[in-house]
Design a protein that fits this description.
Elements: E1 2-7, E2 13-17, H1 22-31, E3 41-44, H2 50-61, E4 65-69, E5 72-76, H3 87-92, H4 100-107, E6 109-113, H5 126-134, E7 138-142, E8 145-149, E9 157-159, H6 165-175, E10 181-185, H7 191-202, E11 207-208, E12 214-218, E13 227-229, H8 234-246, E14 250-254, H9 262-270, E15 274-278, E16 281-285, E17 294-296, H10 308-315, E18 321-325, H11 334-341, E19 345-349, E20 352-356, E21 365-367, H12 371-383, E22 387-391, H13 394-397, H14 403-409, E23 413-418
Bound molecules: ligand EPZ.
Ligand EPZ is lined by residues 22-23, 26, 94-95, 122-128, 162, 164-167, 188, 305-306, 328-329, 371-372, 399.
Length: 420
């Protein structure tokens, strides 16, 4: 296992470009199964992160070829010959559930185990299964496996009980080859949903409405290869902005889509952070941090749950009492306990966290429980007095491409080391 060694107290300064979005890349890699032409799908602006390698292994386990060169992937589905995903890979990453829609569309069958629930709470897939059934899939669940099959998916009207990001993506990928018209109501509106729609349409799909509450999909007979560039990662961008603000730094992020961070920028400004924006950049300038009355995580365009932990690290040193309500996941406050080891004053009651800002955090050894909690602990270490050790950074490597290198470019004293 590896850890980060951080010397706190240095203000981050400089500029950085942000790479492609993990949560766009994963469904789009899965959607490449739908390509029935002999030519490869080319994906650009791919972040080189652990989850990409896991999805690559999943596609290869299905008989597909995935070649990577820098931040570009070439994916061929010419030899797709399996519909069953190895348990080991299913358990490594929840996003493996995204293969259900494409494999049903392409092969008429799919076999998966229940995706691993990570430490942010249970990760049910009932909305995925209900929607696939509505499209004509027969679903059998026994001893931890889900087997879905169909003699041909057909269009349907589907009402999602909750705007689930994954269910929206899975059903979009299943409907794109279904016979006839599909309308899906109450869908998620995240930018990554729009990215997936644009990718499917670049392959010849006929999907409309992504970014709104309702998706309308006209089934087509087949999809072709295409070359596609993934959107920048709004969660990585938000994480770096919060690290800059927590260290009283001045950082410019380029090559991003500021509109994807509207709710985040608004909340950071409420917390006293000075932020300037242009059409493709955001700049944090030094401001005096102050508490925010209530921060509630919500489906897009509300404040994203994936930036709740990094924001908590920022509010831990903002003057006054802040309240965070985590309305998306059941157990996404495990970083609070670790921040308290650094002299933060945070109390948690169910889905609500009360943060009383302190002047300074103190460096110590803290443990990473999940991807975004790990990012929050890095932010806290950068702002703290003294040295901090953040353990088990493999969680962080799932969603951030060499985070320590980006931070070193901005002047941070952070090194990766092997845990002995
Ligand atoms: C996606 O997860 C993201 N992952 C998550 O990012 C993100 O936190 C989440 O959307 C919310 O924005 C990817 O895109 C790979 P959901 P997903 O389905 O699809 C419940 C990160 O850190 N639910 O919108 O799993 C579920 O339990 C990760 O990058 C059901 O009840 O999220 C949760 O409480 C973490 N039944 C809520 O909906 C279902 O069938 C939101 O889940 C599906 C979901």
């Amino acid at each position: 296992m590896e850890k980060f060694l951080i010397e706190g107290g240095k203000s981050l300064k400089g500029s950085l470009s942000i790479k492609g979005a993990k949560n766009s890349m994963l469904p789009i890699m899965a959607a490449s199964v739908l390509n029935s032409s002999p030519r490869d799908v080319e994906l650009k602006n791919i972040p080189i992160i652990q989850d990409m390698f896991v999805m690559k292994q999943i596609l290869q386990s299905l008989g597909m070829e995935v070649k990577s060169a820098g931040n570009t992937l070439l994916i061929s589905s010419r030899n797709l010959d399996s519909y069953s995903i190895p348990d080991r890979l299913m358990r490594e990453m929840r996003s493996s559930v995204f293969l259900m829609g494409p494999l049903l569309g392409r092969l008429g069958r799919v076999r998966v185990t229940y995706p691993g629930g990570c430490s942010i709470g249970p990760r049910p897939v009932d909305l995925h299964l209900k929607g696939l059934e509505a499209l004509g899939a027969k679903i059998e669940e026994n001893n931890g496996y889900i087997f879905a099959s169909t003699s041909g998916l057909r269009g349907a009207d589907i009402h999602l009980d909750y705007p689930s990001v994954g269910a929206t993506e899975n059903l979009m990928m299943a409907a794109v080859l279904a016979r006839g018209k599909t309308v899906i109501y109450n869908v998620a509106k995240e930018p990554e949903i729009v990215d997936l729609q644009n990718f499917l349409n670049a392959m010849g799909g006929r999907v409309k409405g992504a970014g709104t509450e309702t998706l309308r999909i006209e089934g087509v007979d087949s999809l072709e290869s295409c070359s596609y560039r993934i959107i920048p990662d709004r969660i990585v961008a938000g994480t770096i902005l919060m690290a800059a603000a927590a260290t009283g730094g001045e950082v410019l992020l380029k090559g991003i889509i500021p509109a994807h961070l509207d709710a985040v920028v608004a909340k950071m400004k409420e917390a006293g952070v000075i932020i300037r924006s242009t059409e493709d950049s955001l700049e944090v300038l030094n401001g005096r941090l102050k508490a925010v009355k209530t921060l509630r995580t919500l489906p897009y365009p509300g404040f994203p749950t994936d930036l709740q932990a990094p924001m908590m690290a920022l509010l831990a040193i903002a003057e006054g009492e802040s309240v965070i309500v985590e309305s998306i996941f059941e157990a996404r406050f495990r970083h609070a306990h670790e921040l308290n080891k650094m002299n933060a004053r945070i109390s948690v009651n169910g889905r609500t966290a009360f943060i009383e800002g302190v002047k300074k955090l103190s460096g110590t050894t803290v443990h990473t429980s999940d991807l975004r909690a790990g990012a929050a602990l890095v932010i806290a270490g950068l702002a703290a007095e003294g040295s901090t050790v953040v353990s088990d950074v493999s969680h962080i490597d799932r969603g951030y491409e060499r985070l320590e290198r980006d931070l070193q470019k901005l002047g941070a004293k952070i090194e990766r080391a092997v845990e002995i």
